[in-house]
Amino acid sequence: MINLGVIGYGYWGPNVVRNFNGIPNAEVVSICDYQQNALKRAKNIYPKTNIISDCREILFSPRIDAVAIVTPVSTHYDIARQALENGKHIFIEKPFTSSVEQAEKLIELAEKKNLKIMVDHTFLFTGAVKKIKQLIDDGTIGDLYYFDSTRVNLGLFQKDVNVVWDLAPHDLSIMDYLFNKNAVAVAATGMAHFDNDLENVAYITVYLSGNLIAHINVNWLSPVKIRMTMIGGCKKMVVWNDLVSDEKLRVYDRGVEPEDKVSAYPLRVNYRSGDMWAPKVEQSEALKEEAEYFIDCIANDKKPFNDGYSGLRVIKMLEATERSIKKGGELVYL
Amino acid sequence: MINLGVIGYGYWGPNVVRNFNGIPNAEVVSICDYQQNALKRAKNIYPKTNIISDCREILFSPRIDAVAIVTPVSTHYDIARQALENGKHIFIEKPFTSSVEQAEKLIELAEKKNLKIMVDHTFLFTGAVKKIKQLIDDGTIGDLYYFDSTRVNLGLFQKDVNVVWDLAPHDLSIMDYLFNKNAVAVAATGMAHFDNDLENVAYITVYLSGNLIAHINVNWLSPVKIRMTMIGGCKKMVVWNDLVSDEKLRVYDRGVEPEDKVSAYPLRVNYRSGDMWAPKVEQSEALKEEAEYFIDCIANDKKPFNDGYSGLRVIKMLEATERSIKKGGELVYL
Amino acid sequence: MINLGVIGYGYWGPNVVRNFNGIPNAEVVSICDYQQNALKRAKNIYPKTNIISDCREILFSPRIDAVAIVTPVSTHYDIARQALENGKHIFIEKPFTSSVEQAEKLIELAEKKNLKIMVDHTFLFTGAVKKIKQLIDDGTIGDLYYFDSTRVNLGLFQKDVNVVWDLAPHDLSIMDYLFNKNAVAVAATGMAHFDNDLENVAYITVYLSGNLIAHINVNWLSPVKIRMTMIGGCKKMVVWNDLVSDEKLRVYDRGVEPEDKVSAYPLRVNYRSGDMWAPKVEQSEALKEEAEYFIDCIANDKKPFNDGYSGLRVIKMLEATERSIKKGGELVYL
Amino acid sequence: MINLGVIGYGYWGPNVVRNFNGIPNAEVVSICDYQQNALKRAKNIYPKTNIISDCREILFSPRIDAVAIVTPVSTHYDIARQALENGKHIFIEKPFTSSVEQAEKLIELAEKKNLKIMVDHTFLFTGAVKKIKQLIDDGTIGDLYYFDSTRVNLGLFQKDVNVVWDLAPHDLSIMDYLFNKNAVAVAATGMAHFDNDLENVAYITVYLSGNLIAHINVNWLSPVKIRMTMIGGCKKMVVWNDLVSDEKLRVYDRGVEPEDKVSAYPLRVNYRSGDMWAPKVEQSEALKEEAEYFIDCIANDKKPFNDGYSGLRVIKMLEATERSIKKGGELVYL
Fold first, then answer.
1. Under CATH, which number does the domain B2-115 receive?
2. Domain Gfo/Idh/MocA-like oxidoreductase N-terminal, which positions (chains A, B, C, D) (predicted)?
């Protein structure tokens, strides 16, 4: 039995608790939040669980094996560091940390202590992402050309992070996972329309090794909600619309291929426009699978693929994005 | 009666001829193309018109008042220069010229000769753009925040221009017209996936005066065709989907406003989420109106709003975009 | 405080319990189901509530004021009759009863005992239906022409009722509520494709007083899920798509009107095609409002508009539908 | 060379002329219309063709082999009869005739004279219908369950025919062609909302041999245009949306099958919910293929599948529909 402490019981915390509690060899033994409302809600649903307001009770408890950190990103490093120092595995909300430096320190600490870090990039466990990953890995999509993602809506203006740190971790972690390529450089633009300095709209280009380009459009000021990702490959192209319940994924037998790779100029391409295919996408809860995977990684000493390094790669791109925006789009190498 | 010569009878030329011929006080007296197929097609439909293969017959003809130039952009400058030198008004395809320098020379020449230049930014005459312009000008939209346009499809790879010069003139001219603000700088990224050096995907950010940002996504390698423009304002937000026949324009009573402009920090915004309204959009042919407007500008010595300066502003942004892409996204001031 | 007993804790029962428990002056004191699974689930969530398997404990309990009957329709009459006989108000799932006769008996009994019957036509409490009702009542829609509803999907084949009794009560109750007209006759067709005699597809036409027609298309064998209702009026037309989260309701300024009502022949109509308008639709939980309304009707001795007579009108149409289908579409007068 | 005369040059006639003129071994030698406007339009496009206002010049001309009849349905019988009597093959607009009796007489006359009748059910030559036909014939769809078609819009109110005779011939001819089953009976409802007696909304159920049901919803008073046909089969289900340019056809691997065909009761079904597949649909002009097929049938003495009998079957269903509507939905056997 693996005992967990969950720190943070706001919007996402209840889902984390529910899913870990649903695993036979795991149990959430303590839930911590500093807000009375949250504690009351937790108590109502889990009358037998230890509900506390001081997270040190979790961080120093000898009966707790792993800590789920579901707090604002600015608090991640301190909590995670203490958890690791006290021998606890961590399951930590995205984005991993506030800086590359913090992420690197946590990874180093976890390695020294032989502990697991899992960064909660929940989307990687959705049926849609798993299906796309499979289509890329089995060669269906062919050589990749681009990743183009739009994640916009009338969003909650955060007080401490801009739209990039709020929304882009989803797309960056998905792109990192699917493409499995080194990000070479970032060029990004954006704007803060209101009195603070936090961008509410941003456009991020990531150059990846192998002539690959990724672009992410995030916006808190869009009248319509869009969650759409396009992936272009030489054999097939994929459109993933996460807002529809059916046919989230469309695979198009459509594209161009250079007619003859040796002839230099002029370019001649062959166009292909065939069937479209919407593969059935698994509908199970992503967080459930991720929670089970975390417990499995601990119980069987496996290295999670969404480990600290995965989180670090996203933080590197976020940091570079922010620096590029401040310089009006300048290319920032990673 | 204003006599026109039309040079170029490929894809767009037939529409230009048909629409000018539909105007009572205008007549296309000569059509020129260097391809036999095109000439044959023209002859079949207009048996009484002078169909020729040497455009000098138009450029030097004393009976021709105005020349419509519907040829590839690389030929625009030479043809336009000769037309102006010979005292002819010009109606010229977008993009206006291949360079800022060429555009400036043509404008100067036209002013010296007191001739009209109209750049065929057809979209400015569509019901959708006219309606948005009206909503901005009458204050319905309120202060503007951003312009975000996506124009992607499985497009014809051009041999001489990249996706930016092919598709972005539409969005840049629309943005220039609607926002009526100075473009200050451009930061753009893109990639050429094939053997030539012509980008097939590009992302353009234009910074405008007054804390405004515009972004344009153009792509020849998209499995789905998208023509969508979003405009964010403080009172209303507009989504224009040009691919639907009904309800092209949606006006959302949705947005945020700073709660109290004096309090510095933290930011507090009020959210508004009300009705949506799809105003009826005029369905007449845009090119018909534009052709009539050109004839009217000549007949009544009016200055067209889509004149050489309008074309020049677009060329400046295109040039800056290209330079920025080559430098990986660097900010290029205009 | 009004004490409730809830009989039936399958799919819908938990929602009923949760919503009644959320009302300050109401409390669910007993929950009954004959399935062990259901009882266990109830016990987990409501450890302090009396969880039982014999509904007579509710029906005869002196401390219970009202009974919510959330069981299969075949059991409605017996349970409802006993509840009423024992002086309890009833909140009863749609469809009200299995027959017109049963419905009439329950109404009579309730009137004699001065008790409330509320038939759970939940849709009447949705923001969409309330908004349409308002648009009809305030004259926005104008004189009504037709009601046309499609409710199809790959549905669960029921063992005891056909697709008409399963799905059509929604549309019939909505139509009855919105139009507030007498149903005069029904003509319906349908087919049972499998071994039993229960139709899995059906088409129902209801003729209403005042030259009004309603049509309902229900189907358990549709590959796509559709929930769409169109309402035609002389001033406006409404399309309600219940499957989208935004813009569920569209009001079209579109229609025809006879040009001159006196001239007999030939018909001349004026076409109107103007703006479309998507009014904001309230998003609160419909069942929550309905539950509050039930408690309010009891506490303040009000007559619910979705009372036994409302349920009876639906049952009359369902019975007529079934009879018409069996006769291949014959007109059945009500 | 087969010489044609085309009678009727209104909305559809120009398409008929253009397509027959595009066939190498066919030529439209005469075009007839009684309206001066139509004649003028024809003369402009076909200056060398014989343009006339008295159709007898076509019907009695010895140099004309075949007559295309593109006139209102009320005139079909007289024109077609004279054409056949004078030894001409006929290509005739849908609906074939105004009555079953007329259709039967024309068929008899054509057979006696050994002439071809082709009824212009253009939809049968679209890529979408051809693809569905292929999927049915090669067993992909499996045993058929139902055909459900919606064809509604804000339509032109006709003065001489109701919405059934205007719109339903499309759906009835498609259903007849695809299912290739005997229509056994019709039950239909509808309503005329205005002063004349012509229904502007109608709902048609056709019972076919083999436990098959077809339903058609036609409406001239719909705020939105819908052209959607669903076909349910035991192996696959098809949704055809004719208003989208891409992915008109969707084939769903979704459905139910009786679990065990011997066990009588209760019904147990297995649900299947797999991939969706949008086969590429041929985009060529349907009328072009149909015109070529007509010429081919004449030149090579083939029997067209859309012959007089095909037209007659549709007329039988239209007549039955009208009779059923007048009786409020009564079942009319064919």
1. 3.40.50.720
2. 2-121
